[in-house]
Amino acid sequence: MAIRVLIVEDEEQIARFVELELKHEGYVTGKAADGRTGLSMAESGEYDIVLLDIMLPELNGLEVLRRLRKTSEIPVILLTARDSVMDKVSGLDLGADDYVTKPFAIEELLARIRVALKKKGGAPKEDGTKLTWNDLTVDPAAYSVTYDGVPVELSKREFDMLALLLTNKNIVLSRDTLLQKVCGYDYVGETNVIDVYIRYLRTKIDERFGVHMIQTIRGVGYVIKDE
Ligand code: CA
After folding, report:
1. Which of 10, 23, 68, 220 is deepest in the core (most CB within 10 A)?
2. What distance in angstroms lies between residue 14's CA and the mean position of ligand 1's atoms?
3. What is the CA(140)–ligand 1 centre distance, in A?
4. 60 falls within a domain
């Protein structure tokens, strides 16, 4: 059965170009030119994946995503403007599966659609093993983090990043590796997103509890070492 792609994009030229290319690849497409229409179409259950522009009339893309995630786990790929790191980070935190930066090559978009559809196939299973560092305990099964018994609230991506660093304790992970593992795709040239997450983690853990957990290895990446 053909895969149905919803394109939510108010720039008619981009929407039409993407639609033509997707149809050429055998996808069935639907289009919405504003956030409100896009949200109701995405919620209809008639689509397999959503390509969601951020700057939209009526409701912006991030608001569409936030509302959509209350009822649906449909894969969402954000179409973002160049240099809007905060949009990307908020989008991923709100549950976007991926993003492409405009202007994008159609091959890149097609590749990310395939990855996003495949990724939704099966969520990783947790075996209940807790990860620890100093007084920090991360429980992947319960999705909880505590420091000396004090709960620490993390977003999903922050949690995934922390768990990955702890799983690879004493091993330096490059920004590229962190991006690939945490975001599920090779975001070439977008590694500043990782620095933003590291900053959030340091604020929420290192600074709050007065520890030096996440170490920067200049020019390489980040590591959490055994005390
Ligand atoms: Ca737009």
Report:
1. 68
2. 9
3. 37
4. yes
Q: What is the mean pLDDT of residues 145-167?
A: 91
Task: Please tell me the number of Cα atoms within 13 Å of 218 on its side-chain side.
Answer: 0
Distance 54 CA to ligand 1 centre (A): 6
Span from the CA of 190 to the centroid of ligand 1 (angstroms): 21
pTM: 0.58
Tens of pLDDT, residues 164-183: 999 888 889 988 888 887 87
- Separation of CA 87 and ligand 1 centre (Å): 13
| Structural domain count of the chain | 2
Could you count the other beta carbons within 10 Å of the beta carbon of residue 31?
18
| Cα–Cα distance measured from residue 113 to residue 24, given in angstroms and rounded to the nearest whole number | 14
Q: Are residues 19 and 115 in the same domain?
A: yes
Residue with tokens 């050429």: 24
Residue 218 falls inside a structural domain: yes
Q: What is the pLDDT of residues 89-146, one digit of tens each?
A: 888 888 899 889 888 888 889 989 988 887 765 444 445 678 999 999 998 878 899 9
Q: How many angstroms is it from 53 CA to the middle of ligand 1? A: 6
Handedness of CA 200, 168, 123, 148 (dihedral sign): negative
**CA 15–ligand 1 middle distance (angstroms):** 10
Q: What range defines the domain where residue 20 resides?
A: 4-119
Q: How far is the CA of 86 from the centre of ligand 1 (A)?
A: 17
192: CA distance to ligand 1 center in Å? 23
**Quick one: 135 and 111 in the same domain?**
no
Distances (CA, A) of 53 to 81, 103, 160, 176: 9, 12, 25, 25
